[in-house]
Amino acid sequence: MEFTYTPTVTDWLRFSPELVMAATALVVLLADLMLPAARRAWLALVALIGVAGAAVAVGWLYATANTGPAFFQMISSDLTALFADMLVLVACGLAVLLSPGYIERQGITQQGEYYALLVLAAGGMMLMASAINLMTIFVGLELLSLCLYILSAYIARRHTSQEAGMKYFLLSSFASGFLLYGMALTYGATGATSLGGIRAFLDTHAFSLTGGFGPLLASGFALMAVGFCFKVSGVPFHFWTPDVYVGAPTSVTAFMSVATKVAAFVALARTYLFALQPVHRDWEPIFWGVAVLSMIGGNLLAVTQTDVKRLLAYSSVAQAGYLLIGIAVATRLGFSAVLVYLTAYTTMNLGAFGVVLVLERREGQGTALGDYFGLARRRPWLAGVMAICLLSLAGIPPLVGFFGKFAVFQAAIVDGHLELAIVGVLTSMVGVYYYLRVIWAMYFMESPVVSAFPRCDRPRGRGGRTGRGREPRPRRDAARAVACRSGAGHRRRSDAVAGPCGRALVRLRGSRSRRRDPLAHVEVVCALVPLHSRRRSQIDQGPSRPRAGVTDQPGTPLQ
After folding, report:
1. What is 231-293 written as a DSSP string?
2. 111-139: per-residue pLDDT in tens?
3. N or C: which end of the chain has fewer CB within 10 A?
4. 3-state secondary structure at position 486
5. Residue 75 in contact with residue 131, Cβ under 8 Å?
6. 402 and 342 inside one domain
7. Rounded to whole angstroms, what are the CA distances from 517 to 450, 507, 508, 510?
8. Are residues 257 and 282 part of one domain?
């Protein structure tokens, strides 16, 4: 049997957003070869122009109503695909905007390959969301996965980044194998790979789990569910998520956490809510169980986290559970709720990871919860953005996250799944707790930064009170104790400063940055060494009778 097909101009036009992204990746690589090293930052502008061009193509398809299947029922430019494409492009554009300063701070030199892989990953996600054939879904999935494998391990000198890339590669390869095997079994049971062909077969043939093609098809959609649940980080297929999110560059994590879910959920909805809709009673329990486990497990695991990046990773697991409610109800209202929730989730999660990216320092430092203490005083705008994003992820009205959760809970109640809505509400209350932990740290905790002129606990006045009427308390900070002992225990510069450590602290406070007077830090350390050695020798010699005029009380200079 001979088969021939000639693509038309309409096919290429309906595929134009993906073509623009592919062309953008090639242009970025060529520009990387031609631009001098001092102007490599322009590559971000080239990538951003390409993303904007793809968004224009999506808008043109929507404005001209040029929607429908293309390339012999392989892809479709319907409204769902255009909506998903726009969400992916927004995520990609924000990731590109956040990348230049971050990759320079992290010492990433291969900028051309970075932006090209980011754009190609977005193109794979757009292809996956537009696919209406099982083979095209798999091609889009592999394109985005291969790019994200490399991007996760892109910081070569950071061991956590290498670990993230390896874990994602190994576990995702197994998940892709499950997905492809399930597609093969589905094709064997129905004789079609197009979603429309599978739906037509199931409309005309009775399905039974105990006979005929039923066991083969049941095995197929069960294995495909494993692959899809891995991509959306559903429990118990979520174990890769926290390590990959923490180890990958934060700009990649921000993009991957939202854009991958958009593409995967749209492809999941097309496969199960359209092609396998006639047998929804048989695959509904799978997603029901994964949704419940994800909502409970993701929120409970996030409660114990002290790293904000890892906390957001487990939060994304819980958010996947809420999204799976819309799949489990298997209705048109549920699919609409999924799209509403994806819109809110994309905006808020990108904002939260954007704040983490701005605060993260070299070698992945600066993501601990303690680093957010007093952020509202130091950088109030960042703290405000973070608070709004976290409250929206928690579902607090009138923020957009509330409407997303309201939509999925409403879909569950209308379809008769009241238990899913109850579990969702209860786990959302748990989520409010760990989101408020971060907000409390930003607004109500003191900054861990110690002043170069700390106060000494020298008793003054009656009752052992200090100069400002405060009760004395032990100081655990080494720099503060040394400053007191060296005579630098007062805040005012005019006070007497004794000892080399005190003089170094004066220089350290006088210089507004480390770059202006880098030797000040070295002098403080050099002054600490003899004090530590003297104290160590006293400990080794055992308790001795103090000499006259020498005391070990804080605030009294050593003789």
Report:
1. HTT-TTS-THHHHHHHHS-HHHHHHHHHHHHHHHHHHHHIIIIIITGGGHHHHHHHHHHHHHH
2. 899 999 999 999 999 999 999 999 999 99
3. N
4. coil
5. yes
6. yes
7. 18, 8, 7, 9
8. no
